[in-house]
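A quick aside before the break. I want you to see a complete sequence-to-structure record at least once, exactly as it would be stored in a machine-readable document. Don't worry about memorizing anything.
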Amino acid sequence: MIDIKLIRENPEFIKNKLSARNNDTNLINQILEKDSIYRKQLLELEQHRAKRNKVTEAISKNPPNKTDLIKEMQTLKQKIKEAEEIVRKYENNEDESIQQLLLMLPNLPDDSVPVGKSAEENQVVKQIGEIKKFDFEPLDHQTIGEGLKILDFETASKLSGSRFAMLKSDGARLERALINFMIDIHTQRGYTEIFPPFIVDKKCLIGTGQLPKFEEELYKCLGKEKEIIAEMQKRSEHVLICGEKKGAINYSAYSSGNEGEQLGDEYLIPTAEVPLTNMHREEILDENQLTIKYVAYTACFRKEAGSYGKDTRGLIRNHQFNKIELVKFTKPEDSMSELEGMVEDAGQVLSQLGLTYRIVKLCTADIGFSSSKTYDLEVWMPGEKKWREISSVSNCKDFQARRINCKYRKEKKLEYVHTLNGSGVAVGRTFAAILENFQNKDGSINIPQNLIKYFGKEKIGG
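That is the input. The structure line, written in tokens, reads:
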């Protein structure tokens, strides 16, 4: 979340930063309009209080018009009470109208981020490793995996629909080996391993920035909502479980069984960034705790609502996939160096696997909603003959910290921490990269040297 004071004091600066991201700046005008109402109310509150003090002093002198003054005092008290409630809600971030506007604003790009209108203007920083040459035409990972009977998309589709994968035999074994391999690399580099829940509440997703703007990308847990829909259908109410139309049902009227909890307030995680970052929601950390470094393996769940017809083959863009996530909580002055360190941490996985990759600095139009600066790591896929993103590493500065209200104590002062997150790395895409980069002419796959002790043998097939 962007500091309202910064918007108030330098709106043109904010608008220019948002324009660089190809974002509409009209939200800033709406926020300033709401903010002017608050400031007007604050001024009126101060005036009412000043007048109350004068009336109180006048009453104490027992004048002839004391009765009128007492009536005036009662009116003033009511006005003060109403104004105080408006001001309190605003200052405690409880004014939903302005909060919803602020939550829709993306982070501001750092000055070091290249300005660009599309991903075509991202900058390649460097390439690590050489592109492997084959003495035969390399196949894509889906063709290889199906040939080895370690990837089964047909059965996965029968069970769950399109964009799901089933790994079998050595495929399942390779996935598990990669997860353990990646976790070990990061714990050896100082990260604390976490195994978080795969279901989180709405506050978590607001905190990291997926909500309220990107709800269509998320899998929402229905819970008892399904039972309510079924009951309404029995009553001939026109309700669709998966459609847009839900009749006139007021879901907030139904309790989920837990006090204070509403139906549909839980979601499958799109990334472990969400639970890891929210571990310190509403907390004050000590300066000597920082930098905090977490690593987690989780399954991730995304609807991929905007990717119809894109990357429909293989493991590249599935609704469910495994990922290793890295998250850091750090001091503001350290966050940029910690970003470079996280890029190196993610790169270590690829280097130790012998995969050729490159580091790309994203331009203003391509960085994520919560990010101030992002590097992508892209791995070479010889079967597809293209570079594929395998990790995205971002510095969110204090954007998420403001949303989760996470601060640290610096001497006697409280300041917001900076948060960073990155893939360390995407397991399915690494699986795919190994199949394509380590394939042999006979259809077999060599296991990377550093992975053999995790996998248990040197080759798949052959």
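Two observations worth writing down. Residues 236-263 have pLDDT under 50 and may be disordered. The first strand starts at residue 123 and ends at 128. We'll return to this after the break.
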